[in-house]
Amino acid sequence: SRTQVGIVGAGPAGLMLSHLLARAGIDSVAVDTRDYETISTTHRAGILEHDSVRLLVDSGACDRVLTEGREHDGISLRFNGEHHRIDFQELVGATTTLYPQTDVFVDLAKARERDGGDVRFAVTDSDITDVRATTDGERPRMRFTDADGERHDIECDVVVGADGSRSVTRQHVEGREELFRSYPYAWFGILCEAPQSYDELIYSRSERGFALISQRTDKVQRMYFGCSPDEDVDAWSDDRIWEELQTRVAGEDGFELQQGPIIEKTVLPFRSFVCEPMRYGRLVLAGDAAHTVPPTGAKGLNLALADVRVLAEELERFFAGKDDALDAYAERALARVWRAQHFSYWMTTMLHTTEEDSDFDDRRHLGELESLVSSENGRAWLAECYTGWPNKPAG
Ligand code: DHB
After folding, report:
1. pLDDT per residue over 280-322, tens digit each?
2. ipTM of this predicted structure
3. Could you tell me whether strands 28-31 and 118-120 are parallel, antiparallel, or unpaired per DSSP bridges?
4. Atom 7 of ligand 1 has which residue's CA nearest to it?
5. Can you give the pLDDT at residue 35?
6. Which residues are catalytic?
7. 3 in ligand 1 pocket by Cβ < 6 Å?
8. Is there an atom of ligand 1 within 6 Å of 351 CB?
9. Which residues of 186-196 are buried (b: 16+ CB within 10 A; e: fewer)?
10. Ligand 1 and 201: CB distance under 6 A
């Protein structure tokens, strides 16, 4: 059989692409080796940029983000035991929305089902073939065994690798450059059953290290603290976790977290990664398959959605006969990727501490934070980056 676009990976990037293509009259098949249950219960990011919300709503994928998402006008940077608010609305006229990635996934999967989209979860033995030949005009094939054990071999005009940071499709990009950076930090992430402690996000730098106070619902909260990449979650009792978090947000203002039972604990490693180019022949990469950012600044999911918005536009041009469309995608997407790489790196290094930090390092970072929050231009720059950049237009 055949399809216009074979999509490897049915997470938010793959599903959003499939949805946008369907609206443009382009057919696709999306496959994922993970099952629906696994993807929908893997806790990931929580913050959507303004344009990510617009994309979900305007494309008809999801209205729930408007009723159940929580719009935030800003964030708080906390250091020296004080809050320093960054008012996005006032500084750049934009907001962000707290809406978990798991909900984005569920909404997109529902929209694909509603519209008769072809999405296969829990496939096995999936591969793509003939990618090298596609530079000579051949077509790639996407092969997989579906959840019922039936074998498929689908000829595609284009294959999109949206298969996440451990991407298999990426291995087909011959001559690729992999740009990589590791960090001596990780996050200890928890979900807890407690009322919210604050109505926006708090990014805190303290002598004991980083902490991020986020939310999920009225009754469930999401929090993280900086830890070593080889931290053992089982060494952390609820009491020990709460003490660590409380210490990292404590200050003269008496701010305290609302505590409750901890229902999930995970350690999240940090890395920065970009694969260039994001295209080889008739294969293009999107989302984490092409780039990973450390989580500070909440760029990962937003970057993936921004990729597929541009990719859907360029695939429309491709199927209208524009030969440069796939290259144009790679170039337009990459321009945003490097801005996000810098911003995520900057937020991360400014807010985290390691045992090796000298007192000089520590005070220099506090100087950086002071300088940032005391400057309206500094705050506005952070607000611009955090709420998201406009796309470079087509052509
Ligand atoms: C969340 C995650 C992030 O990486 C971030 O910067 C802000 C919030 C979250 O899971 O809520």
Report:
1. 999 999 999 999 999 999 999 999 999 999 999 999 999 999 9
2. 0.98
3. parallel
4. 298
5. 98
6. 72, 203, 295, 299, 386
7. no
8. no
9. bbbbbbbebeb
10. yes
Distance CA 308, CA 328 (A): 13
How far, in Å, from the CA of 49 to the mean position of ligand 1? 12
Low-confidence ranges of the chain (pLDDT < 70): 392-393, 395
Residue with structure tokens 């960054």? 86
CATH domain 2-72+95-180+271-358 topology: FAD/NAD(P)-binding domain (3.50.50)
For residue 177, how far is its CA from the centre of ligand 1 (angstroms)? Answer: 29
CA–CA separation, 338 vs 4, rounded Å? 30
Is the distance from the beta carbon of residue 216 to the nearest atom of ligand 1 less than 6 Å? Answer: no
CA angle 78, 198, 384 (to 5 degrees): 60
Among the atoms of ligand 1, which is closest to the Cα of residue 216? 11
Question: What gap in Å lies between CA 386 and CA 384, rounded to an integer?
Answer: 6
Q: What is the pLDDT of residue 57?
A: 98
Domain boundaries of the chain, sorted by first residue: 2-72+95-180+271-358
The two structure tokens encoding residue 262: 């901890």
Angle, CA of 310, 134 and 15, to the nearest 5°:
35
